[in-house]
């Protein structure tokens, strides 16, 4: 029996996508070969990666000057690779400290350039997005963590600035339509909203790539290398790209990004309504910044928390324990999560009777 998996990532995907991926792993399109043994340069695979890129382009309506890259590894690498590509040795970038993934990017960027931390939500334990700050004149770009996966806070409106945004969208990529023109770089590892672990999709606005920089970017980390080679400079993790293609086809067939957004809002409203109604639980983030992908909440006592986790696991609901720094619960509801699973979680909250 399939469990209802609220894990923050690797996350659940639609059952049909897992089935298609499993079939292709045994025999890809009746070719007599597994998808995993086909060369990344074979025409069969080139078709896969081209279709995947074309679907990202179509879903986000990317202008020509955007390139779609598929790079091995997770979004964490891009926290270093993006500043490497965009900043000269004496340049600076700006960032708002919104939580765990902002802190990771601050650390990564500081190894390469100057970092202006414009504001921090640390004093309120990262329960909100700081909005009151001023941009220094010398910042080349503003790094935003579109959705702070661990603390469950999300930009519902991106900051209005006249420099490009570089966005870590790992936990809300392909979850809503976007005005991409404001972005220099957008990146997301696949295992949350659109696939399995192993690859990161990077959207590069070629207008922001500096034409001459005093930094010598190693060839393997240079976005231009991968643009020139259509992401096939080296062996891209082929199976994860194939799974991403299956998810992209699924997203398009289900109605595209408008529909993904509608569903995310519906799923999260259902859950937050119960969190706010039920006297045994309380939300962690301030309402206006609550993430529609990761809902963080706690029970009114640690004993009740233990009992509720047991109640969930008895009913096949898994993956909702919060990250240690935040505690409580975190229900992650990415593109692959059914509303039926959220309805079940809400029912479990409603009929939960702690033993006191
Ligand atoms: C999960 C996550 C990452 C890290 O991705 P890896 O694939 O583990 O490198 C980075 N940023 C955000 C916002 C995330 O949610």
From TrEMBL:
Alphabetical UniProt keywords: Amino-acid biosynthesis, Aminotransferase, Cytoplasm, Pyridoxal phosphate, Pyridoxine biosynthesis, Serine biosynthesis, Transferase
Known cofactor(s): pyridoxal 5'-phosphate
Residues recorded with modification N6-(pyridoxal phosphate)lysine: 192
Tagged with keyword Translocase: no
Pathway(s) the chain acts in: Amino-acid biosynthesis; L-serine biosynthesis; L-serine from 3-phospho-D-glycerate: step 2/3; Cofactor biosynthesis; pyridoxine 5'-phosphate biosynthesis; pyridoxine 5'-phosphate from D-erythrose 4-phosphate: step 3/5
Gene3D superfamilies: Aspartate Aminotransferase, domain 1 (3.90.1150.10), Type I PLP-dependent aspartate aminotransferase-like (Major domain) (3.40.640.10)
UniProt binding sites for pyridoxal 5'-phosphate: 75-76, 101, 149, 168, 191
Cellular localization per UniProt: Cytoplasm
Residue stretches making up the Aminotransferase class V domain: 5-345
Cofactor remark from the record: Binds 1 pyridoxal phosphate per subunit.
Pfam families the UniProt entry points to: Aminotran_5
Keyword Endoplasmic reticulum listed: no
GO MF term (any one): O-phospho-L-serine:2-oxoglutarate aminotransferase activity
Catalysed reaction equations from the record: 4-(phosphooxy)-L-threonine + 2-oxoglutarate = (R)-3-hydroxy-2-oxo-4-phosphooxybutanoate + L-glutamate; O-phospho-L-serine + 2-oxoglutarate = 3-phosphooxypyruvate + L-glutamate
Enzyme class, UniProt record, top EC level: transferase
Residue sites binding L-glutamate per the record: 41
Enzyme Commission designation: 2.6.1.52
Similarity remark: Belongs to the class-V pyridoxal-phosphate-dependent aminotransferase family. SerC subfamily.
Name the record gives this protein: Phosphoserine aminotransferase
Name of the encoding gene: serC
């Amino acid at each position: 029996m399939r469990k209802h998996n609220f894990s923050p990532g690797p996350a659940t995907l639609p059952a049909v996508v897992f089935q298609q991926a499993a079939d292709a792993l045994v025999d890809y399109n009746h070719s007599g070969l597994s998808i995993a043994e086909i060369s990344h340069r074979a025409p069969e695979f080139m078709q896969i990666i081209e279709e995947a890129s074309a679907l990202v382009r179509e879903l986000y309506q990317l202008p020509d000057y955007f390139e779609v890259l598929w790079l091995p590894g997770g979004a964490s690498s891009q926290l270093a690779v993006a500043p490497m590509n965009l900043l000269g040795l004496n340049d600076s970038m700006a960032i708002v400290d919104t939580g765990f993934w902002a802190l990771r990017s601050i650390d990564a960027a500081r190894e390469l350039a100057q970092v202006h931390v414009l504001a921090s939500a640390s004093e309120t334990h990262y329960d909100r997005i700081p909005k009151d700050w001023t941009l220094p004149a010398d910042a080349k770009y503003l790094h935003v963590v579109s959705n702070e996966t661990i603390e469950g806070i999300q930009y519902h409106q991106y900051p209005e600035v006249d420099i490009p945004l570089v966005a870590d969208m790992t936990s809300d990529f392909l979850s809503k339509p976007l005005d991409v023109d404001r972005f220099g770089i957008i990146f997301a590892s696949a295992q949350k909203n659109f696939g399995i672990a192993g690859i990161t999709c990077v959207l590069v606005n070629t207008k922001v790539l500096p034409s001459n920089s005093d930094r010598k970017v190693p060839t393997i980390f240079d976005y231009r290398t991968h643009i020139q080679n259509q992401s096939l400079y080296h062996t891209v993790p082929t199976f994860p790209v194939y799974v991403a293609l299956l998810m992209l086809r699924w997203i398009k067939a289900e109605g595209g990004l408008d529909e993904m957004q509608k569903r995310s809002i519906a799923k999260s409203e259902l859950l937050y309504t119960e969190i706010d109604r039920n006297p045994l639980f309380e939300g962690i983030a301030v309402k206006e910044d609550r993430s529609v992908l990761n809902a963080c909440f706690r029970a009114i006592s640690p004993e009740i928390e233990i009992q509720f986790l047991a109640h969930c696991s008895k009913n096949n609901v898994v993956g909702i324990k919060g990250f240690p720094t935040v505690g409580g619960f975190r229900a992650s509801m990415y593109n692959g999560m059914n509303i039926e699973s959220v309805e079940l979680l809400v029912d479990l909250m409603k009929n939960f009777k702690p033993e006191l």
